[in-house]
Design goal:
The chain is mostly helical. 67% of the residues lie in helices and 8% in strands.
Length: 307
Amino acid sequence: MPGVLSDALAWAVILTFVVGVFSLRRNERAARYLTVAAWVGFAVFWLQLVPHFAFVHKSYVEGILAVVAVPASLYVGYLLFDGRDSLFVLSRAVAAMGVIYLPFETIPAFTLLGIAVPAPRGVLMETVAAQTGFLVNAFGYHPELIVGDQGYLNTFLFFDGDHRLTVEVVLACTGLGSIAIFAGLISAVKAPLRRKLRAMAIAVPIIYALNLLRTTFITIAFGKQYMQWFVDEILFLFGASDPYMVSFFISDRIISQLLAVVVLVGITYLVVRELPELLTIIEDVLFVVTGDEYDLESELGLNRPGV
């Protein structure tokens, strides 16, 4: 996220989701109004992230998704206000996603009773960097792991002749976002705990392992400048001027992000086979996107006990 204001907005939105969905049993009307307000706030949150993804992060995939999320969030709020109660399940999922992800994004290092407590994001980034380094070394490359701009041991140092190239493992490189999405979805539906745990046991290891392969691929491809293809075209496409960034744009912004979409769809299918209750959320998302109702239960041959 781009700054303190964004973090504060994110917490305000997620806490509104939490209060809204937990108020449902006590006061349905208040829960509906609060949750609708949360979806409106969610639209504002994505709107202020569009410039960051599009112009700072230079990610077409994330930029487009952020743009789409604005009207989609407003439409979900409208549908919920209009009586589509199944969207309370999706709202629970968003609340859980935020509660899982935001502590890593926003809590800094602090001192408690004289003991230094590291920032959760720092611990996670350094862990993923160390594991990525192990895989990079296993492939025969040996960059130095150094302290990066954020003060964590999470940056790989390469040299192309005399030119210094650094690859930093940031929070977005840890797979936490995807893990939070699936953890939120799984926790939101009503199902036996053992099936929820099995679904988590499917999603989390696959996401984490594939993410390590992704960070290893990007680190090697950029660090060794293996993808210096269509240099002028790629620089024009991403509005950049540094030719050394071409391998990064191709390996991360194009190949990895497009493959990530395919992988997430595949993981969703595997998780739904274990937890058919998730079909309610998926059908609601498809309705928001297409305007058509879907019966995925019969199309996939699954039995949905309920949500």
